[in-house]
């Protein structure tokens, strides 16, 4: 994690050092989540893993299969940290077959941000943002017709959003209860739920209402929204604080809204972000030190600071209750959206999220599939989804053969 968020991590680490008895924390940054996963995998292979590795949620199966990491509940016994106080939806992601593997730390959801001033100038109610796919297209059309923005909406071409939209329709990404009841062998990109998402996304683009910032192009999407080229932005909750400031600096008021869905019943969303892993090979002094730091990081005081300076969830219920009592959400309602969205999520294999050892590859296949869909007029949605499905299944078969 770089930029301001990296500085926040550094300051948390040095605050911890000041109150810990002789424990030193050296925080190093390895780039994006993908780069951090690669750096961790290389360090593991070289027999020199870090005491704590931040691994994004989709690296969970790979980390387990590496056999290198100790379950966090062994590092921090329950009498030191009561996991009953942690958010269920977060624990449900990282607890597999009854074992909590890693320490939830920076947990997020996908939400939409919108420009309240642009809504107002287009005659839209800034307090009633769209909730459905059709609503996003309609609002986008109103915004561009009124000349408030160039294009209605943007979000990074990132498989994460597709994954969320399938979960909202209670559709698993892969078989075997999303890879949680056994190894995933089949992909579900040809499902009706998936077709609904890609039909809408391709149509939004065809109507000139989706600005495609590029594959996993988070900052390009953010810039397009902050410079008021678009009125809506799909993004992570991780950035509510900086996005609020960015909107203010660009002269508009920020709104947040739940992820739009096709309509009908919402099943909910899958937790995103990353968690913290500790290798079992650490000597016991280092393992205890890592446990102390992980426990301290998720104490309510630190979680409140983390949440209010970013937008990542506080992973403990007490932190949310304290912020509610202090009136934080009344004063900062944009932070409330993701908490409500998470609380309304119904637990199911779809909302627990998929486990695939080859998840990073699956994401690339989905993202490249979308590009081929919008760049080639002769490629139908069905045709592209068939390809995505086949490629993800090939990747799963190759991986499963290696680990079995
Ligand atoms: O940007 P983050 O940290 O909310 O993470 C988003 C995705 O979950 C990454 O896989």
From TrEMBL:
Pfam families: SBP_bac_8. CDD domains: PBP2_UgpB (cd14748). It comes from the Archaea. InterPro entries: Bact_solute-bd_prot1, SBP. This is Glycerol-3-phosphate ABC transporter periplasmic substrate-binding protein. It comes from Haloferax denitrificans ATCC 35960.
